[in-house]
Write a sequence for this structure.
């Protein structure tokens, strides 16, 4: 029996733990895309870093092997809709973290109005309600190829497959803000001493 394999991390974290600008950007991305933690951002960033590093190494080369690898890289990125069909290797350097986050299954489910929020889209996926071409996908970070984008749906025996399901009703932004404001007002009123006394008196009468 050989030596046990050393488990290595598949992504790289930030080079410096305390960078205000990076921390603020990560906080904004995590909120906007409904990410569970910053590890998901670092994984996407490591993937992006790998694409750009490969492109930088291939750009100055002109030998047949380099041309083959350029074609393979562009084909792979075109598969996910990250670069246009007539793009060259230079276009890879223009990719940003948002380009990859937009291709995640969680984002695609939300963009197709299958969920009301990013976090709800994540919940639907992790609970096994979402399928692609009839294949159940439970990973919110799954990168959706362009060819599979139109095949995203709900599993046949899920109640969410019904477009009239209450959890799939899209609430307008103004209505959502109004409901949130009313909820805060009720919570604030419930915290007042006079409200608690009045409620206590009502319960005593009963």
């Amino acid at each position: 029996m050989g030596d046990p394999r050393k488990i290595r991390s598949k992504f790289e974290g930030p080079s410096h733990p305390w960078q205000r600008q990076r921390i603020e950007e990560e906080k904004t991305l995590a909120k906007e895309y409904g990410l569970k933690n910053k590890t998901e951002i670092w994984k996407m960033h490591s993937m992006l870093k790998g694409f750009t590093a490969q492109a930088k190494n291939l750009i100055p080369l002109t030998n047949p092997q380099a041309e083959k690898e350029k074609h393979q890289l562009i084909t792979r990125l075109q598969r996910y809709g990250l670069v246009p069909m007539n793009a060259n290797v230079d276009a890879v350097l223009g990719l940003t973290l948002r380009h990859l986050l937009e291709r995640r299954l969680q984002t695609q489910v939300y963009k197709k109005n299958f969920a009301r929020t990013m976090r709800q889209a994540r919940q639907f996926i992790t609970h096994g309600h979402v399928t692609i071409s009839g294949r159940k996908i439970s990973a919110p970070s799954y990168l959706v190829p362009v060819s599979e984008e139109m095949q995203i749906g709900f599993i046949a025996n899920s109640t969410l497959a019904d477009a009239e399901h209450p959890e799939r009703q899209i609430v307008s932004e103004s209505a959502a803000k109004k409901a949130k404001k009313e909820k805060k007002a009720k919570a604030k009123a419930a915290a007042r001493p006079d409200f608690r006394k009045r409620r206590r008196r009502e319960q005593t009468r009963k």
